[in-house]
C-alpha cells in the first residue's frame, strides 16, 4: 500500500520556522509478500499523520478504501493531496479502519494490524513551494502456517525516490451496492435539496470567489465505507453572493432514508479576484472538503441541507484557505435562496419565445444504471413524495407507477438512448438517457441547472 507524498521543497527547515507550506500527493502501493493469495484485499484508510523532526504531529482525513491486489509492484493509487508545513519529517502514521480479504479459493480471511496505526519511520523534507513524491508501501504477510495474515509497512519500498505507476485502486463496492438497493427499494428514498452558503470571515476581501463543485458524497450511519456519491455536473458558484443566510440550490439528490454523519464535497477548481485587484492564492486542504454533521433523511419526504463554506486568510500572507463550517451547516439553518451567477447567466441565455415552464413539485429520475437489453427503473416524486399512478411512456408503451412511485420496463437490445415521457395531473416531464452499448455513464438529459426536469403543461 503505497502513498505518494508530493511535498514542496528540499530546504532543511523545521516546520513552523518559515511559515511556508508544501503540497502532499499521498498514494498507496503494495509490496508482493502474500498478496498473490488474494482475489481482493480491501483496506480502508481514514487518517494520515505526518510527524515532524521536532515531534509535532499533523493529522489529515483520508476516507478511502483501496484494493491492494491492484497495487502490486510500482502501482500506486492517489489517496489525496495535503498541504503541510515545510520542514523535515521523520515518521508517517497510517490509520486503517478496516481490512476485508477474499482469497482466490473464495474463502474470507482475517488480516490483522500490528497496532491500530501503521508506523513508517523514514526521513524526508518538504520545501516551501516545491513538490516531492513520497510512497508509503504496505505488505501483507502470512503468519507461518496458521492461515492468518498481517499487514505491515515496508521501509525499503517507501520514500521519496521510488518508482510510481499511478493507477486508481479505490473500490466502488459500497456506492454500487447503494445504487442497487435504491433500484429495488424506491420507497426507502427521500429527496435532499443541497444548498451552498458562505460564512463571512475573509469573503469581503473578494470581488468574486468562484468554486466549481463536481461531486457530493454522503456517509450513512457512520459505517466505514458506507458512502453514496452523486455527480453535480461541474456547478460553479460565487461565494461572494452567498454571505449570511444566502444560499443557492446546488442540486436535488435522491438518497436512501436513514441517519447521516458526514458530507464530502469534491471541488475541481477555485479562482478568486480581490477587490483591490489581483488573483490571490486560494487553496484547499485536498480536492475534497469533509463536514462531520448528523442529520436524517425520511423516506418520501423532502429535506433541505445547507453546506456552508468559508474562506480564511492564512495569517498576513495574502493567501487563503477554503474550509467547511459545521456551525452554519445542516438541516436546521435559515435559508434565503438566491441564484448563483451561473444560474443567472443561463436564464439570460434562454430564448424569449421558450414556452416551457418549470416546477419543482414533480421530479422524475432514472434509478441505477440504464443499459441496452436490460431493465430500467424510473422513480417519480412530487414535493419529495412518491407519485402513484403516474403514466410513464417508453417506445409507445404506457406503464403506471406503483405505490412507491416506481416503474420498471425492458430497454430494447439495440437502443442507443432511452427517452420516456411522464405525465401526472396535467403535468408532463421528458426524461432522456443516452449511452453507447453498455456504457451507462451519460447523464440524464433535459435537466435544468437545479437538477430538476423541465415540465410543460399537458
3D architecture notes:
The chain has a 6-stranded mixed sheet with strand order 7-10-9-1-4-11, with no helix packed on it. A 6-stranded mixed sheet has the order 17-20-19-12-15-21, with no helix packed on it. Strands 25, 26, 28, 29, 30 and 31 form a 6-stranded antiparallel sheet that branches. It folds into 3 domains: 21-171, Immunoglobulin-like (Sandwich), CATH 2.60.40; 181-344, Carboxypeptidase-like, regulatory domain (Immunoglobulin-like); 362-457, Immunoglobulin-like, CATH 2.60.40. The longest helix is centred in the middle third of the chain and has 12 residues, at 173-184. With 458 residues, it is mostly beta strands. The radius of gyration is 25 Å and the shape is globular. The chain is built from 2 helices and 31 strands. 5% of the residues lie in helices and 53% in strands. The model is unreliable at 1-18, 173-187, 340-360 and 436-458 (pLDDT under 50).
Explain the layout of strands and helices:
Elements: E1 21-31, E2 38-52, E3 57-67, E4 75-85, E5 87-103, E6 108-109, E7 111-112, E8 117-126, E9 135-142, E10 149-153, E11 165-166, H1 173-184, E12 189-198, E13 206-220, E14 227-238, E15 246-256, E16 258-274, E17 281-283, E18 288-297, E19 302-313, E20 319-324, E21 336-337, H2 341-349, E22 362-367, E23 375-382, E24 385-386, E25 391-394, E26 397-400, E27 406-410, E28 417-424, E29 427-434, E30 444-445, E31 455-457
